[in-house]
Design a protein that fits this description.
Strand content: 25-35%
Structural class: alpha+beta
Number of domains: 3
Order of helices and strands: HEHEEEEEHHEEEEEH
Strand order of the largest sheet: 4-5-7-8
CATH superfamily of the largest domain: Immunoglobulins
CATH class of the largest domain: Mainly Beta
Shape: elongated
Radius of gyration: 30 Å
């Protein structure tokens, strides 16, 4: 009787292991590109689609070269609509919407904050200062104007300024915020799609574990039932 129990247990264990090995593994492997330039372009697109702030980012890329697969760190630059690059210096700012009563109280710091103006060195990734703000063309009268931000080496960018009697529902205090100067966008849709993708990947990773647990539960239950049958048969 004991030999029968051991045999049944061995068969169930083999079935369990066979089922476990048959479940596919959903491992996420890095993309391998045909060249370093192609890899950098693809990673730049990923950053742009995820809504990353304009800037230079270090990313790890994998690509084929001379019959080998190479992994290396590449520096990729996300550009905005008003990004200006004079290598190795880059500067970026966003369009601004102001109310008429805000124009007279705007300081250089306020202009920089509202436009999210910033500059950086594309080689060292160091942030560079905004050394001057020229808002002399902006008047406290409804209309379209411009403001210019400059960093070191005279590198500058000019962005539009919309002045109106009534403020926009979402003023440009943070990069990517909606306002009338920029117009409506689809950032919310891209964010939703990215969230759905993350949920899908997480589900694919957890599914094999759930199936393994379920199979183990059924195997244990079947083993107990067989033991009960053999016990009654022995009596």
């Amino acid at each position: 009787m004991r030999k029968l129990r051991r045999s049944v247990a061995a068969v169930l264990m083999l079935l369990f292991l066979a089922g476990a090995t048959s479940i596919p593994a959903f491992a996420i492997e890095p993309n391998v590109y045909d060249s370093k330039d192609e890899a950098a372009a693809a990673e730049t697109k990923v950053l742009e689609e995820s809504g990353s702030r304009p800037g230079t980012y270090p990313v790890t890329v994998s690509y084929h070269e001379d019959g080998k697969t190479i992994s290396a760190v590449a520096y990729v630059t996300v550009e905005g609509k008003y990004t200006v690059i004079v290598e190795p210096i880059a500067i970026d700012a966003q369009a601004i919407h102001l109310r008429v009563d805000e124009v007279s109280v705007m300081t250089n710091e306020a202009w920089i904050e509202r436009a999210d103006a910033h500059a950086w060195n594309m080689q060292t990734l160091a942030e560079l200062p905004i050394v001057s703000v020229d808002a002399s063309l902006v008047k406290a009268v409804p209309g379209h104007y411009s403001v210019t931000f400059a960093t070191v080496e005279g590198v500058s960018t000019t962005v539009p300024v919309l002045v109106s009697q009534v403020g926009a529902s979402g003023e440009n205090t943070l990069y990517g915020a909606n306002n009338e100067a920029l117009g409506s966008g689809f950032g919310w849709f891209e964010s939703f799609g990215f969230t759905v993708l993350k949920v899908f990947i997480l589900t694919m990773l957890l599914l094999p574990l759930v199936l393994l647990f379920f199979q183990f539960f059924l195997s244990s239950k079947l083993m107990k039932e067989l033991e009960g049958i053999t016990d009654r048969g022995g009596k």
